[in-house]
Amino acid sequence: MSKMMRILLIGLSSLGISFLSQISMAQTVLNKAQPVAVSLPAGSSALYVITIPSETRLVSVKLSGGSGNGDVYVQQNVAPTITNYFAKSTGPDNNENLPNLPIATKYFIVVYAVSAVQGANLVADYQASQISFIQSGQVQNNLSVTPADTKYFAINVPSGKTKLTFKLSGGTGDADLYAKFGALPSTLSYEKKSAGTGNVETITIDRPRVGLYYVLVNAYMPASGMSLVATVQ
Question: For 3-127, which CATH class?
Fold first, then answer.
C-alpha cells in the first residue's frame, strides 16, 4: 500500500467515514487452514476471500498473534464494511475469533487495524460434512446429534413427483429439521424448517424440484434415539 493511500485511509478513519465504502481494496485469496501474515498501519485495512465447498457445514475465521489491535469483519459472498457485515470480532488486541459460521459460497474478510498490527496471522477454515444418501421410505434409526455434531441426509427426487416429506420422531432431547434443494442447509440458510419443542418434526415440500434435496438434523439441545424418514410421492 502506498504512503498516500495510508494517509488517506487514516484521515477517513479519523473523520468517522467508513473506510470500506470509500476505498476499493485488492483482495487476498485464502486457502483452507493456511495462515496468512497480517501487518497493517493504524487506520488501514486488508481484504481477504475464501471459497467454501458446497459440502461444508461450518466455517471459522481467526486472527491471532503479533502486536497491536486488529478487528475482523466477515460477510457472505460480498465484501463487508464496518457497518454492514454478517459477523465481527472487535476485541482489544489481535485475538479475534469467529467460529461456527454457517455455510456460504464465499466469505469475504476484512482486517481493520485500530492500532498498528505487526506479525499477526489470519486463518480461515471449514469442516467437511458427512452426508448420508437415503431412499424414499428408508427409516434411519437411533440417530444422535449434539450442537457440535449435526447430521446431513440427501434424497434424490425423480420427475413426476408431487410431494416430499421429512419426518423426525422418537428419542429424547430437542432436534430440529432444515431442508434445502441443491445445497446443504444451515440454521440460517434453508428453504423449509421444522423447529418445535422436542423431536417431533415434519417438513412437507409440495411440487418438489427434480434433483437432490438435503435435510439437516440439528441439535437445539443434545438429542438421541431418534428416527428419520423421507418419503417421495
Answer: mainly beta
